[in-house]
């Protein structure tokens, strides 16, 4: 019961932060895909990110969120753990070769 209540409070807090900070839709999707939850990103979420990555401006937002997430450590290790899955399933292979900084190529 306590764990379920804590999860509900955490979800409620996350939703309030997203609305108050005015996070864009694409940014919210990437944040959800690389969340600290114990399960992986949902397939439909990854598909939506893949479609959004075809737009230049949304691609820039996606990559900026990913770049921020890659520097997480400690208790947020799942953010980094989910990044390769998110990148591989959402971005075409050539996109990262053209637009990614060199550190990304070493990770992938």
Automatic annotation (TrEMBL):
Its main location: cytoplasm. Keywords: Cytoplasmic vesicle, Golgi apparatus. Pfam families: ENTH. GO terms for molecular function: clathrin binding; phospholipid binding. The keyword Transcription regulation does not apply. Residues 18-108 form the ENTH domain. GO terms for cellular component: clathrin vesicle coat; endosome; Golgi apparatus; plasma membrane. Gene3D superfamilies: 1.25.40.90. InterPro entries: ENTH, ENTH_VHS. It is found in: Cytoplasmic vesicle, Clathrin-coated vesicle; Golgi apparatus. GO terms for biological process: endocytosis. This is ENTH domain-containing protein. It comes from Trapa incisa.
């Amino acid at each position: 019961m306590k764990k379920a209540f804590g999860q509900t409070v955490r979800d409620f807090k996350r939703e309030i932060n997203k609305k108050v900070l005015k996070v864009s839709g694409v940014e919210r999707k990437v944040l959800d895909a690389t969340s600290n939850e114990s399960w992986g990103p949902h397939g439909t979420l990854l598909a939506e990110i893949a479609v959004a990555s075809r737009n230049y401006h949304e691609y820039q937002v996606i990559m900026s969120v990913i770049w921020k997430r890659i520097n997480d450590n400690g208790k947020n290790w799942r953010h980094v753990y989910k990044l390769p899955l998110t990148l591989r399933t959402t971005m075409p292979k050539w996109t990262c070769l053209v637009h990614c900084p060199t550190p990304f190529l070493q990770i992938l």
